[in-house]
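Try it yourself: sequence plus protoporphyrin IX containing FE, in.
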Amino acid sequence: MQGPTIPYRPGRIDKDASACTPDGRLPDAAQGTDHLRNIFYRMGFNDQEIVALAGAHALGRCHTDRSGFDGPWTFSPTVLTNDYYTLLLNEKWHIRKWDGPKQYQDKTKGLMMLPADYALIQDKAMRPWVEKYAKDNDLFFKDFAAVVNKLFELGVPFNPDTKPIIFKSSNA
Ligand code: HEM
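Structure, out:
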């Protein structure tokens, strides 16, 4: 996806379904930054890391038959870029008029932002990080690689000698 190299260490093990966390512990896209802090601080992430993680929404899209939300965040949803931040700051976002959950829409009507995305630019402490990542793709890549690695490794019972694996991209 043309993003930064993210080291990977195997070690997360399968567990029985009874070990699943109860519902309601994932972030709720309909809520704002108080809620995001409740969810992510618990796992040891700070405001900068919450904003860096949200940049993953450069990829993929929302599906009405899954979350109920609809559409992609960027025009290139298979390529990791800092477009999520530039679009969030530079587009005019309007509440979409539709028979669905509250979400924002750009003027082309081709892109969307969740209430939880839009909340990042309304939050005094988080907005400066959106601005930094919008200006500096290298900084976003560096911080994203670090924080996504932290997320992937949370709670993994590694053997102490587990070395990271670096997957080389085929066109590098
Ligand atoms: C900040 C809190 C977050 C909220 C509220 C949130 C919410 C959502 C929602 C509602 C969807 C749409 C699901 C669907 O309809 O298929 C989605 C998709 C997605 N999210 Fe998040 N998310 C958050 C954080 C993250 C993080 C931390 C990552 C990864 C580092 C991530 C990566 C993605 C990706 C790649 C998709 C697209 C999936 C697809 O195309 O099927 N999100 N997110």
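One thing you can check immediately is this: Helices lie at 33-41, 47-54, 83-90, 115-118, 127-135, 137-153.
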